[in-house]
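We modelled the chain as a single entity of 184 amino acids. Its sequence is:
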Amino acid sequence: MKRSYRLITLLAAMLTAVPLVGQSTRADERAAAAANSSTQMPVVIPAGTPLTVAIDEDLSSASVNQGQRVSFHLTSDYSEFGHVLISSGTTVRGTVAHVDRRRAGGNPGAITVQVTSVRAVDGSRIPLRGTAKVTGKNRQGQAAALGVLTLGIGATKKGLSAVIPAGTQFTVFTDVKRTIVVPR
């Protein structure tokens, strides 16, 4: 009985693996061709690899809109086994994920930016994940005090807009495992 259970388990494992063997993606084919090549080598960038990016332009919650494209760049090379996989200065795509304008009552503005992808040295796009939120200065206490002193007129005082200056750095992460093909 124990032996037949092991045999059934082994057959089930083999049958579930068969459909996976038949599936192949273009990236897998490139990696397999590079592994058999004398001039190219596949190198894997694992999911969750940290990268440091810097924003290329000044952003303010007073002037940006949700969904607006934002440009970042990689601050240093990412390399494995002595091969540069993503070059320093490479453009990183991103967007403004959320914007709150400054409001009366001393409420500050806020900006949330997120990165989406970067291109590796072999031209393949690597999805990224990472967000950064910046909030302006809160002036609710000042607005309340002025509201009392000016019989409510001071309550219209707004908080400050959120500002992200160009060059501000963020740490982001690769979202999926990617195989990059580099020269040997």
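As a brief sanity check on the tokenised model: Helices lie at 2-22, 26-35, 140-149. The chain has three helices and 13 strands.
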